[in-house]
Amino acid sequence: MKKELMFVPAPGIGHIVSTIEFAKSLIEQDDQLLVTILVMKLPIASFIDAYVRSLTASQPNITLIDLPQLDLPPLQLFKKSVESYVVDLIERHKPHVRNIVTDIVSSRTGSQSVPIVGIVLDFFCSSMIDVGNELGIPSFIYLTSGSGFLSLMLYLPSRHERVSTHFDLSDPDVFIPGFGNPVPVKYLPEAVFNTDGGYEAYIKVAERFKDAKGILINTFSELEPYAIEYFNKHHNPKVYTVGPVLSLKGQPHPEMNTAEWDKNMEWLAEQPESSVVFLCFGSVGALNVCQVKEIAKGLEQSGHRFLWSLRVPPLQDESTGMFKKPEEMLPEGFLERVQGRGIVCGWAPQVEVLAHKAIGGFVSHCGWNSILESLRYGVPIATLPIYAEQQLNAFIMVKELGLAVDLKMDYRPNSDVATADEVERAVKCLMEGESEVRKKVKDMAGIARKAGLEGASSFNSILRFIQDLFVSLL
After folding, report:
1. Among 283, 362, 381, 385, which one has the highest count of C-beta atoms within 10 angstroms of its own C-beta?
2. Partners of 306 in the beta sheet?
3. Rounded distance, CA 350 to CA 251, Å?
4. Phi, psi torsion values for 306, nearest 5 degrees
């Protein structure tokens, strides 16, 4: 029996791609499932739109519907709080999502029509649970982060009832259900300290989690067993572990110089196995000049081979406006001194790099997708978080799971600097000897690769989710 599942991802490229890949995994288990994804259109580069379309080109069971392009919230709001900006943007799209879903439901008449069995909402879109409730359709939340972030979001509303205000860095450690250790507040996301709408945005999103029929997390039970066990015993709605959800195709980018990258791959092919440390800080993870110089000095001191994806900060000001190329941010003579053992490039295809046999370590911003990619290929991480929930992810990987090396897991780029000595120490810890972290990451890689296979943990969790969708028809 055919049935339809609707998805509403947040507009970020990582959220949309993760949604598409998750939809594919559902269809692989049940080819009677039809998926409709409502895409929020933003004034983004056309290459991103083309890339998203390419991911579904061979998937006849997936339909993309573009939502109307709307006036954006004021840029001033974005500068005050990214989270508040995104929540405002989601609210502006809510009437259009309601209209489209209502029209689709109204068009389904007769016993042979395909029923809509659920709406899967990005966690930022949790307010759209109202749309499902109005139409009698169960709503599920899809979390592109891991169980630790879910634990925080479930904790925030109860804490808000008691305290009713934002966090402060002077607050004591936080005991969050689902964590094995108390969490120092310095590892919490920037938004919970934000008095310009960020904290309120998080509370608004988190308060709706309890109204979902279920919560889908991009993780696997073997990675975060303590949290998953807690959810299974103490939490309603039901939690499904459906990861690792990854796009191994990799994302293109107009900044990438293909000819230059071919030379970089030739260089990588000449390096010994697991001898190169890769540094990359995400699609918007540009660092200031002071931090770039400290990292360069630390790499030079370490003596290890490296491949560094370095990007000029996109928001030009007096301190960065003079730079046109990443190389111009480096210390004088650095490239000459490391010639032969290190390469600095612009945009790099992260999945392709992590999959390469020469890569033995990864200095990362600890975005959840990057963490899952590193685990998929058995490459240990040194943590240098930048924004969103990345400090919390770093804490989880280092303290909760023992799967990463602490470079500076409480790093805040606007008020902090990771020193050359800290970089040197972390790189050496990553690259020298068979550390316990490296062994644990290699073991976890095998589990991550198998989690979605028939009979394994995430496969079974996805199967339970599909079965529960059928129950909603009864």
Report:
1. 385
2. 277, 342
3. 9
4. -150, 155
Q: What DSSP character marks residue 192?
A: G
Q: List active site positions.
A: 15, 122
Beta bridge partners of 241: 217
CB atoms closer than 10 angstroms to residue 380: 27
* H-only helix segments in 116-146: 129-135
Q: What is the Cβ-side half-sphere exposure of residue 183, based on CA atoms within 13 angstroms?
A: 29
- Chain position carrying tokens 């990451």: 441
Rg of the chain over CA atoms, in angstroms? 22
- Nearest partner of 120 among 284, 245, 247, judged by Cα: 245
- Give the dihedral sign, CA 413/417/420/426: negative
Residue 140 half-sphere exposure, CB side, CA atoms within 13 Å? 25
